[in-house]
Specification:
The protein is 39% helix and 19% strand. The chain is α/β, with parallel strands linked by helices. It is globular, with a radius of gyration of 17 Å. The protein binds NADP nicotinamide-adenine-dinucleotide phosphate.
Length: 195
Amino acid sequence: MHSRIYIIVGASQGLGASLVRECLNRGLKVIGMGRTREEKIGEIEKWRNTGLFNYIQADIGEPSSVDIMKSAVNMCYGSPVCIIFNAAVIEPDVGHDGCLKIDVFKSINRTGVDGLNHVLQVFEKYLTSHGGMLVGISSISAWVPPIGGNKVAYPASKAYLDMALRSLRQLWDRRIHIMIVHLGHIGGAGSWLVP
Ligand SMILES: NC(=O)c1ccc[n+]([C@@H]2O[C@H](COP(=O)([O-])OP(=O)(O)OC[C@H]3O[C@@H](n4cnc5c(N)ncnc54)[C@H](OP(=O)(O)O)[C@@H]3O)[C@@H](O)[C@H]2O)c1
C-alpha cells in the first residue's frame, strides 16, 4: 500500500507553508506549489533535507501551468493523494472612488477561478483512478454578507470554490473525499477561526 502524498497548492508562505511544516513533522510526503522561486523560500532547504519534499514553481492562473503541474502527477507513482487548494490572492479590489480596480479583480479570479480550473484539469483523472482527497481552503466571506465593502472578487472566488467542490462531491460520488474549510481571519492578535 502506497502512502498518501500531500499536494499543497500555494505552499510558499502563510497557511500553506504551515501546512508543509506540519506534514513534514509528521513524516508525510509533500509536493508544494507556488509562483515564488524556490531560492526565495526561507525554509526550503530544511524542507528538502527531510527527503520528503518537492517544490514545483507554477503560476496556476496561467494555462501553461497545466503542463508544469503534470510533473507533480509523475511524482505520485500511483499513491493516493490529498490535494489542498490553498492558493488565493487576498487583496481589496475596490478603489477610493468606489469603482473596481479591474486589474486586481482579474488577478484574484486568475488564481481563485482559473487556477482551480487548471488544478482540476491536471488532477481529476489521477484522483478518480487512484483515489484520495480534495480540500478547498475557503473563507467565511464565501457565505457571510459582504464585510468592509472593499473586496468583490475574493469572496466571489471563494463562493466559486465552494460550489465547484460541492458539485464535484456529487459528481465523484464517494470515490474521492471532498473537504471545504471555511476560515475566519488568521494571523496576528485577535485572530479568529471558524471551522
Ligand atoms: N489570512 C486570512 O485571514 C484568511 C481568512 C480566510 C481564509 N483564508 C484563506 O486561507 C488560505 C491561505 O491564506 P494565507 O493568509 O496564508 O494567504 P497568503 O499568505 O497570501 O498565501 C497564499 C498562497 O497562495 C499562493 N498563490 C497565490 N496565487 C498563486 C498562483 N497564481 N499560483 C500559485 N500559487 C499562488 C501564494 O504563493 P506565491 O505567492 O508563491 O504564488 C501563497 O503561497 C487562502 O486560501 C485564503 O483565502 C485566509
